[in-house]
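User: Can you recover a sequence for this backbone? Please restate the input before giving your answer.

Assistant: Of course. Working from this structure:
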């Protein structure tokens, strides 16, 4: 899986002036295999399960770089939790207050930043929206 130059991830890393390393490709592969949204710790655990373990800091640093480059998506679902995913389309998230599940929410604009701040804070390149409430599953249980 590593070092395939045709891999779009590799192209995007190189285009941004970054080296294509095994950890960087491995964390993207892990996110694709896992699907949906996962913390750095979950990606780390998955790589151990598939016998391609990486140091935790390497997983974390790779995820941060790839998210900064827009290769993977990062959502701050709080409190204290950041999840990553292999996603092609910019979107937002809904977090259920009851079960903690994370759901994708389409972005009506489609590319960041899709919101403007109310004040002049500087140059904005991204706006993440976290919707919170009770998910459909939990609403169903309560009825
Ligand atoms: Zn729920
Ligand atoms: Zn998502």
């Amino acid at each position: 899986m590593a070092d395939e130059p045709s891999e779009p991830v590799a192209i995007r890393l190189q285009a941004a002036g970054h080296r294509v390393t095994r950890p960087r490709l491995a964390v993207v592969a892990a996110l694709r295999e896992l699907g949906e949204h996962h913390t750095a710790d979950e990606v780390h655990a998955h790589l151990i399960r598939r016998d391609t373990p990486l140091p935790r800091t390497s997983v974390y640093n790779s995820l941060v770089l790839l998210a900064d480059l827009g290769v993977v998506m990062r959502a701050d679902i709080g409190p204290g939790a950041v999840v990553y995913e292999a996603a092609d389309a910019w979107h937002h998230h809904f977090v259920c207050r009851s079960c903690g599940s994370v759901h994708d929410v389409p972005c009506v604009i489609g590319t960041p930043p899709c919101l403007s701040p109310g004040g002049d804070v500087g140059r904005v390149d991204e706006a993440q929206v976290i919707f919170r409430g009770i998910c459909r599953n939990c609403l169903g249980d309560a009825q």
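That completes the design. The helical segments are 8-15, 22-34, 40-49, 56-68, 136-142.
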